[in-house]
Amino acid sequence: MNLRIGHGYDVHAFTEGNHLVLAGVRVPHDRAFKAHSDGDVLAHAVTDAILGAAALGDIGQHFPDTDPAYEGVDSRILLCQVVALIKSQGFEIGNIDATIIAQAPKMGPHIPQMRAHLAKDCEIPVERVNVKATTTERLGFAGREEGIAAHAVVLITKKGTDLFF
Ligand SMILES: Nc1ccn([C@@H]2O[C@H](COP(=O)(O)O)[C@@H](O)[C@H]2O)c(=O)n1
Ligand SMILES: C[C@@]1(CO)OP(=O)(O)OP(=O)(O)OC[C@H]1O
């Protein structure tokens, strides 16, 4: 199959701190992500979407949260490893669309840098990467500011498939 789609979803709760990391961008906040890694929900959702598209399981199977090697790891490193893995199987990434679900902080000013990081890590032009943010109108765990979620969908193609004409 030349064209495959994947979905990723991740959530991290807050703990004490002064910034969040989203697609490797340091976003000032009055809390931080509680996680084994840097807690980068956006990078995790994109990584899971890529793995999903290639039917290669999920991020926790590749990088267990019980492995000290991943303690505090920069999640962009994990994303780059997964991109290398699917490339080794003859795939490349077509495009990415992601949504951050956060009551606060405002993501808008940071989105251009998030897109740039994801494009670099996924080895595609930034025009093929979209990142959005939404509140939940104060409903649910995100609305109560207990944590942040991210969804991502990713299209992958067999190398040489011309999708963008
Ligand atoms: N953490 C967030 C949440 C939202 N935005 C931007 O605000 C717009 C309105 O949000 P609603 O939840 O009321 O739809 C949204 O479309 C985003 O552009 C944001 O920057 N950061
Ligand atoms: C990234 C990994 C590995 O450090 O840990 P966490 O930062 O806890 O993140 P999560 O999305 O819960 O699961 C994937 C893990 O394997």
TrEMBL record:
Query: Which keywords fit this entry according to its UniProt record?
Result: Isoprene biosynthesis, Lyase, Metal-binding
Which EC numbers does the record give? 4.6.1.12
Q: Which cofactor does it need?
A: a divalent metal cation
What reaction gets catalysed by this protein? 4-CDP-2-C-methyl-D-erythritol 2-phosphate = 2-C-methyl-D-erythritol 2,4-cyclic diphosphate + CMP
Enumerate the residues binding 4-CDP-2-C-methyl-D-erythritol 2-phosphate: 10-12, 36-37, 58-60, 63-67, 102-108, 134-137, 141, 144
Q: Enumerate the GO terms in the molecular function aspect.
A: 2-C-methyl-D-erythritol 2,4-cyclodiphosphate synthase activity; metal ion binding
Q: Where does a divalent metal cation bind?
A: D10, H12, H44
Locate the site labelled Transition state stabilizer. Answer: H36, T135
Which PROSITE patterns does its entry note? ISPF
Give residue ranges for domain 2-C-methyl-D-erythritol 2,4-cyclodiphosphate synthase.
3-156
Q: Does the keyword Coiled coil apply?
A: no
Query: Has UniProt tagged this entry with the keyword Lyase?
Result: yes
State the free-text cofactor note.
Binds 1 divalent metal cation per subunit.
Among the GO biological process terms of this entry, one is: isopentenyl diphosphate biosynthetic process, methylerythritol 4-phosphate pathway
Q: In which pathway does it act?
A: Isoprenoid biosynthesis; isopentenyl diphosphate biosynthesis via DXP pathway; isopentenyl diphosphate from 1-deoxy-D-xylulose 5-phosphate: step 4/6
Instruction: Name the domain of life this protein comes from.
Output: Bacteria
User: How does the annotation summarize its subunit structure?
Assistant: Homotrimer.
Q: What family classification does the UniProt entry report for this protein?
A: Belongs to the IspF family.
Could you tell me what this protein does? Answer: Involved in the biosynthesis of isopentenyl diphosphate (IPP) and dimethylallyl diphosphate (DMAPP), two major building blocks of isoprenoid compounds. Catalyzes the conversion of 4-diphosphocytidyl-2-C-methyl-D-erythritol 2-phosphate (CDP-ME2P) to 2-C-methyl-D-erythritol 2,4-cyclodiphosphate (ME-CPP) with a corresponding release of cytidine 5-monophosphate (CMP).
What is the protein's given name? 2-C-methyl-D-erythritol 2,4-cyclodiphosphate synthase
Q: Supply the gene name.
A: ispF
